[in-house]
């Protein structure tokens, strides 16, 4: 199980903690994306849950984005759209979840990982949680995660990440742009911060939090269709010789 990764949910005192893991720096193949979207949806429906923590296992990698092994295996547009729809489904699950989601970002976030952090309602991170949208560097673009990232940090900052696709931006940069609410020195301090906030929210009015979340996400009702359109764009691009060569070159580094 650990070799293929996992998604697991634990509920304690009205706080649901959803943790994902994959041995390749917490990259996310299709089966984990599906499990993650389902776990977020189920936690949102669970009356025993008032707030959700989204986290990954391990130390310095929050999420490395898409699985390169699955990317290079895509051989038709339908398969490509289906793969990129996985990230769309996770973002939409977080968007539509009636519970507030706290993102715990303990390490670097790449591509889809930045999208997941952006889809959280409140993100806390360590100083090691640098970000990068590397999609253009491998011949595609951050089309699926783009709306979530742009909503969180603005068009200018998102475009900087998307265009300069090989440069890491520091956790401090991400905090200045609004992706992270607070930066901690290490994972232990991060966990204390996440726990303190989660416990405050677990004792807050669930209906008030639900209504707040609806307000925060106003104007995104079209994302079900939009993100699928974006997934199709990526699914087409990933078939090009340029992209295949770029992914293989990236993998061989």
Biggest sheet: strands side by side, in what order? 1-2-3-5-7-9
Radius of gyration: 17 Å
Globally, the shape reads: globular
Number of domains: 1
Total number of beta strands:
9
Task: Tell me the fraction of residues in β-strands, as a range.
Answer: 15-25%
Architecture per CATH nomenclature, i.e. the level-2 architecture: Alpha-Beta Complex
Instruction: Look at the structure and name the CATH superfamily.
Output: 2-enoyl-CoA Hydratase, Chain A, domain 1
What is the count of DSSP helices, taking H or I runs of 4+ residues?
11
The average pLDDT is 94
Low-confidence stretches: none
CATH class wording? Alpha Beta
What name does CATH use for the topology?
2-enoyl-CoA Hydratase, Chain A, domain 1
Profile the largest sheet.
6 strands, mixed
Structural class comes to alpha/beta
Helix content: 40-55%
In sequence order, what are the helices and strands, one letter per element? EEHEEHHEEHEEHHHEHHHH
Termini gap:
27 Å
Q: Which structural traits does this protein have?
A:
alpha/beta, 2-enoyl-CoA Hydratase, Chain A, domain 1, six-stranded mixed β-sheet, three-stranded parallel β-sheet, 9 strands, globular
